[in-house]
Amino acid sequence: MSSPASVKNHPLHPMLVALPIGLWTFAFVCDVATVMGRGDPWSTVGTYAIAGGIIGALLAAVPGFIDYLSIDEKEMKKTATTHLLLALGAVAVFALNFWMRQRLPQTSLVPLSLSAVGLLILGGVGWLGGEMVYVKGMAVQAVEELAKESARKEKQPARMKRAG
Questions:
Q1: Which range marks the domain in which residue 14 is found?
Q2: Average pLDDT of 93-120?
Q3: Is residue 114 part of a domain?
Q4: Domain total of the chain
Q5: Mean pLDDT, range 75-103, rounded to an integer
Q6: How many other CB atoms are found less than 10 A from the CB of residue 51?
Q7: pLDDT value for 154
């Protein structure tokens, strides 16, 4: 089964999830730097990284939800539902983190703690995403199907190019 939310057979959801994963991981690094006394710039950059991660996660959710709606198999749907709910939970934790940063002193450990919890949840989200793709084959074109498609293309006569 291929992904309905794809461009030239390349699913969009896995491409887009890199943005929130990277930004939220960087926000955690910024929080560690802030706690270690590196000061205001790291706290500010961490806040922007969280905001960008939230936006990126919401963008990634659109093709992810389109893929979700296409799942018919019961066990896959159960895994996908858990993946979806955990992903929403991670977004909620980082949204709370963003909100708390506006209200707490820079020396608070709450942002670091929320970033750590959010990343742990995100790890579970990634595990389930990997389970669906690499173990159960969601949105993966079978090797046999690719071989047949390649053989069909090889049998087609080559188009002549015009000289000039």
A1: 6-155
A2: 96
A3: yes
A4: 1
A5: 97
A6: 16
A7: 78
